[in-house]
Specification:
Order of helices and strands: EHEHHHEEEEEHHHEEEEE
Largest sheet: 5 strands, mixed
Number of domains: 1
Strand order of the largest sheet: 1-12-2-6-5
Shape: globular
Low-confidence stretches: none
Mean pLDDT: 91
Strand content: 25-35%
Bound molecules: coenzyme A
CATH class: Alpha Beta
CATH superfamily: 4'-phosphopantetheinyl transferase domain
CATH architecture: Alpha-Beta Complex
Number of helices: 7
Number of strands: 12
Distance between the termini: 20 Å
Length: 248
């Protein structure tokens, strides 16, 4: 893979307030270690809202439940450091159409993604969308590409094979999903309605006016086999990379 590996600066829970400075042009990325290693899950769970605790209960497997508790608790701790609020008092709401936001701090934009034991959170003042995917062989990925990638996107994959195909597939997937998250549509907008241009500098819709016509994509490796894309309406010239929760 020829894309840049992000250089994360480790931050301790104790000095979060020193780095969480809500500057106007900031785009801060947070890599979260969701392994649970060295973490007191029951204490962190107390930071969650009743809705979050109810959602955690729906995870059948303990490790998935714990990852959810960790990512939401870490998210609250980080967002509290930006806003000065108590992490337990932060209330989430939905921006149009379905994008998570902080009810009392609409000026702060956030986007989150998870893959296995790693979480990613983006905090910004411009509209952002983030996605994170593991580069891993899975059954029938070619069919997934057929169902979700437009003709021109598929043509770009057509000349590739093996590890190159898989890396290009994952890269494109994160780019499309980051844009869907920036727009806040999630799956209510088909990935087929959106084409990422070959130079990855722009994308076009088929027939839907989304009200956002200019943004930037930055694709990078979050770790060895983890590809991430940040989509933002502002040119991401001041991205900071922080890591919380121990080595990931
Ligand atoms: C939620 C969604 C946006 C991503 O789901 P996912 O890949 O399972 O999960 P991720 O780990 O990447 O992201 C989850 C986070 O996205 C955020 N999210 C949820 N819905 C969102 C929306 N409509 N807009 C923006 N962000 C959203 C939440 O913060 C969520 O975190 P949570 O689980 O703690 O609540 C999903 O609804 C979706 O639409 N996925 C698109 C899948 C797809 O077809 N991609 C095609 C790419 S070619």
């Amino acid at each position: 893979m020829d894309i840049e590996l992000a250089n994360w600066s480790s931050v301790d829970f104790g000095n979060l307030s020193e780095v969480c400075a809500p500057g106007h042009a900031m785009i801060d990325l947070w890599l979260l270690n969701l392994s649970g290693e060295g973490q007191n899950i029951s204490r962190l769970k107390k930071l969650l809202s009743e809705t979050e605790i109810a959602r955690a209960r729906h995870y059948r497997f303990r490790e998935h439940r714990h990852r959810f508790i960790l990512r939401r608790a870490f998210q609250r701790i980080i967002l509290a450091a930006y806003t000065g609020a108590d992490p337990r008092q932060l209330a989430y709401a939905m921006d149009h159409p379905d994008k998570p936001m902080l009810a009392d701090y609409p000026e702060l934009q956030l986007s989150a993604a998870n893959s296995g034991e790693t979480g990613l959170l983006c905090v910004s003042h411009s509209l952002v969308g983030i996605d994170l995917e593991q580069v891993a062989e899975q059954p029938a990925l070619n069919l997934v590409a057929q169902d979700n990638f437009t003709r021109s996107e598929q043509q770009r994959l057509a000349g590739l094979s093996g590890a190159d195909w898989l890396a290009a597939f994952t890269r494109l997937w994160t780019q499309k999903e980051a844009i869907l998250k920036l727009l806040g549509t999630g799956l209510s907008m088909s990935p087929l309605e959106l084409t990422v241009a070959a130079d990855e500098a722009s994308a076009t819709w088929t027939d839907i006016e989304r009200g956002v016509d200019c943004w930037h994509l930055k694709t990078f490796r979050a770790a060895d086999a983890l590809i991430a894309t940040l989509a933002s309406t502002d040119k991401p010239c001041d991205i900071k990379y922080f890591r919380l929760g121990g080595p990931s």
